[in-house]
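Risk register update: the risk of archive-format incompatibility is retired. Evidence:
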Amino acid sequence: MNGQEFIAVNGGGYFGKFHESMSLYVCCDNQQQIDTLYDALAVNGELQPCGWVKDRFGISWQITPNFLWDMDEDDDKTRSQKVMKALYGMNKINIEKIKEVWNS
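Archived output:
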């Protein structure tokens, strides 16, 4: 996909369907990348909170801005918790809103 090789191994009937314990995490540089990727994966898929989307094949994706982990791991836990709370209210992540919460 986009020059990156992904390999999925079929574990037979034992493993059943894809579920959230196996997800692909994509860090995006800007809102346009988030919008493009999230919207494409959401076609015939399932929107989920915090930047997650389950595609039409049942594969879960986490589409996030590249700075999100830095916010989560910041020493100011009150600030981090505010960002996480805002994320739970979003499906597709809105970078501008996240930064507003971060800076408030």
